[in-house]
Amino acid sequence: MTDLLVSTPVFFVGAQSPRQRRTNENISGLLHCYFPKGTDLSRWTADELLVVADTINNRPRKVLNWRAPSEVFNEQIDSLQQANDASTI
Asked: Which residues form the domain of 14?
């Protein structure tokens, strides 16, 4: 599995480029629905935080053609595993 992650591209936004941070800002807004700004997250258990993460990660996004981020991520992992399996034959 480690080999699959090595080939996954990662993009870091520019510090002075707010237009590149739209998705990040959107997620921050979603998180604020659950945890208002300044909330002490130590009040919640890890399981409760995971429920929020699962809810957000399974919410369809327009930018992903109305698919959920978890769905797109799993498709990418499956695709990489199939490519890796094919290269070992």
From this structure: 2-87
